[in-house]
Design goal:
The protein is α/β, with parallel strands linked by helices. The protein has one domain (22-262): NAD(P)-binding Rossmann-like Domain (Rossmann fold, 3-Layer(aba) Sandwich). It is built from ten helices and seven strands. It has a seven-stranded parallel β-sheet with strand order 3-2-1-4-5-6-7, with helices on both faces. It is globular. It starts with a helix and ends with a helix.
Amino acid sequence: MALIVGAMQTTQELSMKTAFKTVLITGCSSGYGLETARYFHEKGWMVIATMRQPREDLLPRSERLRVLALDVTRPESIAAALEASGPIDVLVNNAGIGLFGALEATPLATTREVFETNTFGVIAMTQAVVTQFRSRRAGTVINVTSSATLAPMPLVAVYTASKQAIQGFTGSLALELEPFGVRAKLVEPGYAPSTQFTANGQTRMAGLVPEAYVPQAQRIFAALSSPMVTTERDVAEAVWHAANDESGQLRFPAGADAVALAG
């Protein structure tokens, strides 16, 4: 009798676990990704938080939360992470790197580095999950871009190009996957001074603002001092809404400044 009861409890536990939806989020070591992982966990989802260098101390210990290593620029890393994660319901392509500087001062190698993560990394992750989504006729891909795609701004030409490519990619993909019940969404965050996004790119951006461009840079920094900014929670909430949206909406601006730009 004890064995039967134990088996029933195990079955019930497995049923409860499989009832949770699962989200895999890239770039969870800080900023938007970290807050989005926390937010989905608070909402009761199974969360797979991925980072280039995994840190278990950043997120709460939970049976519904796993931290995995993932470098979106390495195919073998993508394959290993997806094998370890098992079936997922939502992929959030959040991992990205920033760049601020004049085009004429930006080495082509730096441009390629930005595109490898912001553009090709997103495409590679998406391609890696599309087959399981199409086969199940369910699943959502959410690509986090930037409000830089909503209005032109100087000194971010390369960064904007890497994100604009994903805007077009996602719009086309949404139509391509619609017949299979699979969704593709865009989340467009504004400027978030509370994140480490700029600090993380300081080495990459060193020397990219020659003297002739300093006045432009100063005007941009002055404009960014506006109180209308984006927070990490703004982005997490926008990703949550995108993950649960069934209306066909493609774009989800995140943060007061992004919402204002989106009009």
